[in-house]
Each structure stands twice: as structure tokens, then as C-alpha cells.
Design brief:
By secondary structure, this protein is mainly α. It has 33 helices and two strands. The protein is 71% helix and 1% strand. Helix 3 runs antiparallel to helix 4, helix 27 packs antiparallel against helix 28 and helix 29 runs antiparallel to helix 30. About 2% of the residues have low confidence.
Length: 695
Amino acid sequence: MNNGEATKCRKPLILFFLTAVTVALFWPVIKCDFVNYDDDIYITDNKHITAITWQNIKWAFTSGYASNWHPLTWLSHMLDFHLYGLDPAGHHVTNIILHTANTLLLFILLNLAAKKLWLSFFVAALFGWHPLHVESVAWVSERKDVLSTFFGLLAMIFYVKYVKNSEFSSQNSEWEKDKSLEICRKPSSAGYWLLTTVFYLLSLLSKPMLVTMPFVLLLLDYWPLDRFRTKHISRLIYEKIPLFALSLGSSIVTFIVQKRGGAVSSIKVIDLSSRLGNAIISYTNYVIKMLWPCRLAGFYPHLGERLSNFEVVIAAAVFITAVVLVWRQVPKRKYLLTGFLWYIGTLVPVIGIVQVGLQSMADRYTYVPLIGLFIIIVFGIDEFISCRKAVKAVSIAFVIVVLSSAIVCTHLGLKYWQNDTMLFERILDVSRADYFIHSNFPYSIRYMFSSADRINGMIKNCGRPVELNPNEAAIHSNYASILNGEHRPAEAVEHFKISLQLNPKIAEVYSNFGNALADAGRVDEAIENYNKALQLKPDFAEGHYNLANALRKKERLTEAVEHYRRALTLRPDNSDACQNLGVALAGLNRLDDAVECYRKAIELRPDSIIAHGNLGLTLARLGMTEDALQECRIVLNTSPDDVEMRCNAGVLLERLGRKDEAISEYRLALKARPDYAKAKELLDAALARQKDGRK
């Protein structure tokens, strides 16, 4: 068997091995829940993904919902909801499939471009099994990451095919003289180019992370495709103009949508010098976390003006040294320049110069950029082995240890995504440890590679009060909301207080605190916090809605109606606000207005049995018995054991003179709940009237 035949036999085995290990490694995430970290906004509370309809498809392409424009991601969530409903296991399976596919596609891409079977395998394995990629796979809301990369890698593969096909054709076509028309005049090359463009567009429609892909393709032209020797760089740039145009368009749309959604932080929140300093540090920290993946978390709060200048200087020195070392190796080791610029360039959109949110960095941002560093590591080790045959066995053992370590760290990292509580406890632990290191830099540099548990244990034992990062405020607020949902009100209140001490100017925190107080029955205090939230953010739809609910509990219905209407003006698609407005109007005896609100709520959310039930009760008060009975039937079709609605249906049937059917409803209510006194009284009264009627 020659080398070509051996390679053909090995490829399927490698693909199978990559698939088996990647799926087995990430399979435990199917036991993870949705988390209160965008999963509610993207999936569990998003009515637009509950059905695949033309209206929802139009919404996906025209909405800037959640401060993002990624229509294909919304369509993927719609498909998941259609297949799995709100079972998180199915949604996680889709992420696993996409990540596994990305691992295989990366192997195919590198093997096709560089013709290095085993090196391509090692790069793909590092990509598929590295713990920094846990967030992109285990977090359902980060579907956009794995989906965008899936289409992006397909685009790169077809680009390599286009290059190889066009180069082969140009070498074997005697009749073609004008190479500038190559794309147009060769159907096969044009087909590959078209597929490259289409898949790149699909990638941008999933997430705009790969706006730098035209730049990545130029890097592939440099190495391993080696096109800089045969074509002038201006021509290579010229042929990618359509891709640059798509990239520019996606960047503009994304910035506008995020700006309108309030996701882009202003210079007043995080100044430009802090952003630049954080960018330099992040480039270094990502490399450190790649080499030593400790203290990984779902969120790293930005330090803002509290960045250590000394740390910035060290990070800048490391960065400049790396640039010099790489440049000195050009063109002897071309893979170094491609890998280094791949890493630097693909991180630019998320490095924080344009700050979106309050994070300093994020593990998910490394999903594509780390490919560049993996190329440097793997091809560098190969070159080292080639020069020193005696250390080949040691080097292979080293690679095996590295991959095994990555698998172990990834397996351990998956547990923090099991549920809300574990996720946010981990975030707080890491945030506290990281803030200690940054605040005491360079004296704390000895803890740089320590675990969060060790650092927090040391802080606790020192007996001094712990200084917290002000940008942790949102984390404490979210964690407090989780604790409140777990019926741990005392702990929830404590974390809300910490959040407000760190930053007393976040409207959402006051609103969430109000919710916790309202759940605890402290409605007056809740109203006070809702009012503070609206003072900070007058157009806060959720704040108006929460305040209206609290006012309704206090029977201040006129004020409640005012705030419900304000909430609906700001967010017209809030079906709960429509329904609760109807309840408040019904309480004011404005029954016709209440009916209108209930119908609007049902229009927004047809499966809302609460709205149907309240509509039925209000129609009954208006004397519209047949219509009221119809609404009761809708509720009972969904909830046949709703004994209260059974009794209501029975009363309405009696009004219509259908006594036998009414008695049947009362008996069904008692069958579902034998101790329900109201049903027993209504049944006895109906039987007595029936008996008297027969006499």
C-alpha cells in the first residue's frame, strides 16, 4: 500500500475518532438546564421561536431583538423548539452536533490546504476538546457561535477548493490568456467561488463574528496555499471584494442594532484608555488560559479604570516581543505569521474597543481565534521533531498528554453549566479571585496560575474585608434573582444589597430587587424599588410592568392601569401586560375595555389559558353566556382538571338551560378533586333543582 492509499484509509478512521471523542466528551451537557443567562430571553420566554411561521420568519430577519441581528440563529432555535419544545436536552444536542461538525470541518480544511494529515488531526482535536470552548457548546444561547463557525468553515473549504481548482485549470488551459476573468470563465471555479460567498453570507447571518474572514482567506493565500508567489497581493484582495462588501454590511447592521438596543457601552461607562488597556491584557490572558485553563467562567467583569498600569505594560511588552519574534521568522516559517495574525485578527471584533456589555473578555470569543494558536503549536512541534529525530517519541507522548489534559479539563468545566446556581456561584468565585490578582498586581503574580478556590480560601483566611469589582453588580443581581426563585429570600436580599452598593445606578437591579420583595409580601418596599428603577430609566418597560403588578396587589387599580399602558407602549408584544391590564380594568368595572385587552393578549399568545379564562369570566359578567362558555371550553381542552373552570362551565350551562350537561361538569370537577366543596354545593343545588323540576 503506497502513501496515498494509506492516507485514504486513515482519513475515515480519523473522522470517526474525532466524532466519537467529541460527542462522548460533551454528551453530559444534555443533563444541563437552561440558564438564567440569556436562555430566558433567547428561548424560554421568546414567543417568536415557538412556531415556524411566516410571521416568525419575517421577525427573525427584521428584528433587532436582544440587541442582535442573527436571523439564521433564530431559525435554528425555532427548529429546535419544533423538535424538542422546552426540553433543554434537545437544544444541547444540536450544539453538540454543530461543534462536532466544526471539529471535522477544521480537520478537512487544514488537510485539504496543507496536505498534513496528522497535523490537521492534532489541530482539530485541540479545537474540539479544549476547555475554553465549553461555553460555546454548553450554553444554548451561544448557538450563534457554533452555527456561524459551521458555515464559516464550509466557506473556507470551498475557497480552498476554488483556489486549487483554478490553479490547476490555469496551468492546463492553453487557450485562456486573461487570468483576471478566471472566475467568470471557468464554471467549476465559479461554482466553488459562489459556494464560498453563499456560506460566508450564511455565517454572517448566524453571527457577525467572522467579519474578518476575507482577511483570514488572505492569510490562507500566504500559507499554506502559497499564492503570494504566483499572484500579486492586489489581485488577491481584488477577488475578495464581494466578501469584504458582505463583511462591511454585516458590521454596520450589527453596530446599529446593538447601539439601538443599548448593548454598546458609551465612553462615559468605560473610557477609551481602559478599553485599550483591557484589549492588550486580554490578548495575553487568552493565551495564558489556552496554555493553563484555570479560573474559567461564563463572565469576567470589566475592571474599567481599576486596570493595573503595570499589568498593561507587561502585557504590551509580551505582545510586542511576540510580534518581533514572529516577524523575524518570516518567511522561513510561514505558518507562524498565518497563525499569529489569525489569532490577532479574528479577535478584533470582540476585543473590546467597541465595548458591548460589561465583560472584559469571554471564553466564547476564542472559538475561532484559537485555531491560529493551535496551528502555531502543532506545526511548531512538528518542525521541532523533524529537526531532532531522537525526541520524536517524547514529543508524541507530550501531544498525547496535552490532548488528554484538555479532555479532563473540559469534562470538569462542563459541570458549572448544569444550572443557574452553579453557573453564577462559579462566576462570583472567579470574579473575586481575578479581582484580587488584578488589584494587587504585581505582588499577586504568584497566584496567576492558582485555582479560584485556592485564592478565595486564602482571602477568607486573611480576615480582611473583600474588595469587590463594581462591574460585578449585574452578577450579584442575577444570582439574587436565582436565589429568590429557589425560595432563599434572605440570601437573595443580601446579594441585591451588594449589587446596589457596588452600583446604585442600574435600573434592572432595582426592578429585580422589587420582584424579590413582592414575592416575600413586602409590596410597599417593592413599589419603592420599582419607582427608583423608573427614575433611572423612565422608558424601562419591565419596570413599568412590575410596578403595575405591585400597584394592582395594593388595589391601586387606576395607577396600575396607567403603568400597564406605559409598559405596552414601550413593548407592545407583552401578552402578560395585556392580560393583567384586563384584570385591572375589570376590577374598575370597565368590562368592555377588559375584554379588548384579553383578546389582544390572546392574539399575542393564543395558548394563554389565563387570558382565555379571564375573558370567559368577563364575558359572563357582560351576559354573553355562549361566548363565555366557548372560552371555558378552550381552557378545559388544555387543562381538563381545572376544577374551578369546570364549575364555571357548569354555571354557564345552567344559565343556558342545559342542566344535564351542567351536572356532568360538576361531577367531573368532583372526580378530579373529591374534596372541592364548591363543586359539591353546586352539584347538590343542581340536582335539587332538577328534582323539583320533575315534580
